[in-house]
Amino acid sequence: MPSADDLKALGNEQLKLQHYDKAVTFYTKAIDLSPSSIYYANRAQAHIKMENFGLALNDSTEAIKLDKNYLKAYYRRAVAYSGMLQYKKSLNDVRTVLKFAPADKNAQRLEKNLVRVINRIRFENAIQVDDESSIFDDIDYDIGDENDNGLHLDIEVTKADKRNKIHQVVNVKMTEEYVEKMIELFKNKGTLPKKHAYAIVAAAKELFKAENTLVEIGIKRQKTAGSEYQNDAVKKITVCGDTHGQFYDVLRIFETFGKVSKDHTYLFNGDFVDRGSWSCEVAFLIYSLKLLYPNNLYVDRGNHEADDMNQVYGFQDEVKAKYTERLFKCFSESFNSLPYSTLIGQEYLVLHGGLFSNDDVTLDDIRGIDRHKNRQPPKEGIQMEMLWTDPQPENGRAPSKRGIGLQFGPDVTKKFCDKNHLRKVIRSHEVRDGGYEIEHDGRLVTVFSAPNYCDSQNNLGAVVELTLEGDEYKEEYRTFKAAPHPDIPPMAYCKNNLF
């Protein structure tokens, strides 16, 4: 029988191979044999790699209880706190490390980045303006760009006086030719003219803002009192999960499963930015397709379409590096306009995270959310849960392994689906080795569309295709491998490395 140290060594091997689940298994067996601060801290590191920051926090705290002088445990807990966006607690722990090990390079780097993030948040809170103002009202769309890169875009700006302030509404006449040229420009490491960039984000924001918090598509035609009502049923819908700035994989999605068209609707289920180093390109492609096919491309908000995540996981720094700080603020405002969920054919609820802490939540509760009330997603309530929660195999509910939100079991999914007359829930938010997973007795599907996530996970990507056959949608789960891309690592533009 292997000793605890033997099991730790096996865990270390799996950690180096980036097999984090296996590493956790070996460390757990070592802990069961002989609890040790080292084993707990090592398991915390494996959880950090999987972004299970809540579990990493628990393990680091257990390590500190066993040995209050074990500095590595304080550092791991600092990283876990930063992953949970609790920056002040993270800073306290990292300064504990530096008190006793002032030359620790990792702790020095983390302290520097934490101070930068905390100061930036403090500054942005101090200059926060009223909810009626819009960054788009101050954009000059007549600005000249030194080079239009061969792109032509018709931009129309109308102005209206609202409460003694001039508001600008932007309309863009998008074309297939423009989208094709834009893709080629991005492949050649080019950027859009700034005027085009501002206009595309502004015009897309108006379309998203006009949609309901619960978008309803693919609604079958029904009759009441002899008259037809509601939309024509959409014949084919492709649901994509997280794409996380992996532009070349998004292109592969369209190449493999077909382009957006009036006969083929796409739904991107959040987290299309951050992590990957082409988040700008992904966002501009999705927004441009929304302008070209407003009734055939939809986007749900994910937990990464938020300022606090963008500050840490790369999108803000990428936009600043490729364009301007002001453009990031434009994207931020557009994210605040994104719907939170989509109902397909009255039978499939699509949302980024998962279900709720309360069994009484209904589709009408989602419909009733005033998502424009807050500039950023709330840190509690059903909006937070729609972005952050995860499934678990056991019945009931449990604290989140992420440290944010919660976990919910098959019984929770069944109650919700039965109560709301749904066939199933489709969500994203988590890597799956096979690209997708059918869970909770078939009532829940997780789909993830960023293959070889962060160039390290070796997972497949997947989409869910819903094709109308007669009066019912037929489900098909299709997978794809990662596409080749230029040699630029994930988060290449990120200046706030907190992990």
Automatic annotation (TrEMBL):
Keywords: Hydrolase, Manganese, Metal-binding, Nucleus, Protein phosphatase, Repeat, TPR repeat
GO CC annotations, alphabetized: cytoplasm; nucleus
Residue numbers annotated as active site: 304 (proton donor/acceptor)
Cofactors that this protein relies on: Mn(2+); Mg(2+)
GO MF annotation list: metal ion binding; protein serine/threonine phosphatase activity
Catalytic activity: O-phospho-L-seryl-[protein] + H2O = L-seryl-[protein] + phosphate; O-phospho-L-threonyl-[protein] + H2O = L-threonyl-[protein] + phosphate
Domain annotation Serine/threonine specific protein phosphatases: ranges: 192-484
Pfam families according to UniProt: Metallophos, PPP5, TPR_8
Signal peptide: none
Family (UniProt): Belongs to the PPP phosphatase family. PP-5 (PP-T) subfamily.
Name by which UniProt lists this protein: Serine/threonine-protein phosphatase T
Lineage of the organism: Eukaryota, Fungi, Dikarya, Ascomycota, Saccharomycotina
